[in-house]
């Protein structure tokens, strides 16, 4: 029993020790696990971690607040929207009260289309701003993913330690959330307004297009009752009120357009001011140096009336063409002002009958404009239009002839008369059958077409006078006072300007007939349509542009000399050879630049161009050697300068003065008046005798006999004194006297002296005459 107790105690002690070891091991494992959890697990954070999370959240809210606040670009967007709203309100108000004038409707359509584009851009900008706000909101929402910050927010006990930090954070959040809500509301309101304005613009465009369609060429759809069926319901006492209301509308529309086009009009005024200064400076130079009387020889009709009026004519003509879609009041005022300026230019130059007919035409045009702008369509207006059309037809048949005789360009007046009479006849017919808008449009176009061709004719003459003034002033500054053939030069210069004048006239007529936009669109489609030949794709527009640029380059290189005072004067002695060389280089540069620009504008791919150049190289090798040889020789002559324009040369069996040098040929004026054309390649391959390479003087000689009682010393004195008194002889170089035979009372002499090579024969003749007189006065016999 005792043994069993001892054994029990021993086993119990053993089990206790074993359990203690096991428990200790388990505790050690638990401690190790907890240590590993604290080191690598983020669920438990320190105060420093919490402070960093709060600071990070504050930075996010701060940056979000700054980004949410509207910056300068957004304020600029809102300002643009405000200006668009003002424009739209003015156009919509004008549409309600204005006459269905084609000019105004065209301007409304252009402005509405621009407003529509502006609204599209503004809508895109607002959507972009809304997207930015959504992205900023996501940045704030992403703060919820910060576990440390969320743990701190949920731990109410530990959160009390950061009460102040949480208070600041809450204020930032409230301010950011408030600004976000406010700005999102603002953007949503702006977007709603933009959508509403887009709808209003669409409706207004439909209305404008409908009114413009009423002006289409169609006599079958009545716009108003026929003239014999009309019952005018407008009370007379309301006419004055209607005129006042329409004047206000037209003034507002024109004032808007002035602001809308202010930049272009200021630019036009600036360049006209420069032109005014330039012309005035040239005229002042001529007057100061005593050449004022010579201006009368140039047969100026308008520049001799002062500079201001011609400049106004140029500016107003340009304003008419560059403001095709201006309001009717704006454009018709420009037209009337232009015609008024012409009155002062025509005064004391036109005959009394022509002047009265011109004033009568202006009166009809003014009445037509007033009726079209300010009188409501009714019985009064329609009968007044018919009366003006009848007077216009009579004017075109009878009175217009007096205007034609006074104008510089008479060829266009025939077509202008036909258009004027034809449009007035059509206007009466359309008015009778109820197509009032079309009738009014045709009437206005008829008078504008006639008055505009008069104004453009004056414009052309003024431009030619300015060019002639520039040429003459430049020549005077170079010391060349001789008058040139200005009439022939004017005929040469006016040809390209007539093309420009014709284009200006046609687009004004087409714009007033409301067909310019459709013509331009159709022509643009035709010119931009791609065409394919083999592997080459091109458009007609690129081909046309290519040839236009080539034509302009050739025209410019031909006329560039005129602006430096150079003209084709074959008898001119004081030729500036250095200037001629510079002009030749300038012409070469203009031509090369023109061809390069034409190739670039044509849009021809470089790989296709290389193929073309390869084919051209084959052509050169087969048959264009001489052409290329002459071209390269011309370039060598321009830069090497063995001969220059004005030089007197001898080439092979030909001699004469160099008249002009081109890239392929050189023209020589022979003494007998013939013009010799020599390829440039021949010039480089032959010996050239250039008498004027260094100067314009030539050594000439005279042989004669003297009979009588004298001695050589006395003969030498007589010869020297006689030549010294001849102005044509260059006495800066001494003359030379040689005796070929001497006997009692008989002497044979050879005299050599220098004179201008351009007046060789004249100088020799004068020298013989003066020597004969001098020897005769001494009692000696002179024979030559």
UniProtKB/TrEMBL annotation:
SUPFAM superfamilies: Mechanosensitive channel protein MscS (YggB), transmembrane region (SSF82861), Sm-like ribonucleoproteins (SSF50182). Residues 105-146 form a coiled coil. The keyword Signal applies. The chain crosses the membrane at residues 257-279, 302-322, 328-346, 358-377, 383-400, 412-433, 453-476, 497-516, 536-556, 584-603, 609-628. It is a multi-pass membrane protein. Keywords: Coiled coil, Membrane, Signal, Transmembrane, Transmembrane helix. Residues 626-692 form the Mechanosensitive ion channel MscS domain. Belongs to the MscS (TC 1.A.23) family. This is Mechanosensitive ion channel MscS domain-containing protein.
